[in-house]
Amino acid sequence: AQSVAQPEDQVNVAEGNPLTVKCTYSVSGNPYLFWYVQYPNRGLQFLLKYITGDNLVKGSYGFEAEFNKSQTSFHLKKPSALVSDSALYFCAVNEAGTALIFGKGTTLSVSS
Amino acid sequence: AAGVIQSPRHLIKEKRETATLKCYPIPRHDTVYWYQQGPGQDPQFLISFYEKMQSDKGSIPDRFSAQQFSDYHSELNMSSLELGDSALYFCASSQGGTNEKLFFGSGTQLSVL
Question: Is the CB of residue A98 less than 8 Å away from at least one CB of chain B?
């Protein structure tokens, strides 16, 4: 069975500092990996995905994520955090043709 | 650009009542997914449709049913509502039966009293 874990409920960073939101996954085959962001009272917004190819994936709003097969991780990163990045971030995984499975979410709080 | 439209935005029902949630996908999207997100929880997959046929089924209770219509909009029908059904219900759409990039609606907040 496929699963995804986000070990941190909350990540706090100061504006301008780099941020990392962690995600590890478990699938039996080749993983499709995603990051979504959720702002209060809003739907989930797609940030980026890894299907195949380069391990470093660049997405929306300056975010990027690195696929590490040996560590089964797909951490979300941004070189310089903005206060407006404060939101709930979900990592998701699936295998081809199956529904997305979401992690529990990590609240990112960026202080000014 | 047009997005995924869900209606109603908010719905208040009492126990044992029924509710119908509607989802209008992005134009030319033929695939719809339904997710349930409880307070402080991650979204849980309920059911999906591709070309008006059920394509996958998740943790959808037997009290719930859904369908996709000829215009690709989808409706989630919920009967015998329970307090635990109170949640945010998201619909997402994509094209071609894939879920490589889902577009989510803003959700319907269902409160069961």
Answer: yes
Separation of alpha carbons B2 and B24, rounded Å: 10
pLDDT tens by residue, A30-52? 888 999 999 877 778 889 999 88
- What pLDDT does A81 receive? 97
Subunit contact B45:A100, Cβ cutoff 8 A: yes
C-beta of residue A11 within 8 angstroms of C-beta of residue A109: yes
pLDDT tens, position by position, B3-14:
899 999 999 999
Rounded Cα distance, A94 and B55, in Å: 15
C-alpha to C-alpha distance for B109 and B86, rounded to whole angstroms: 8
Question: In a mutagenesis test of the B interface, which of A36, A98, A100, A106 is the best target, namely the one with the most B β-carbons within 10 Å?
Answer: A100
pLDDT tens digit sequence for B26-69: 999 999 999 999 888 888 999 999 999 999 899 899 999 999 99
- The answer to whether the CB atoms of B42 and A32 lie below 8 A apart is no
* CA nearest to B99, candidates A72, A38, A92, A69: A92
Residues in B touching A99 (Cβ below 8 Å): 33, 45, 48, 56, 58, 99
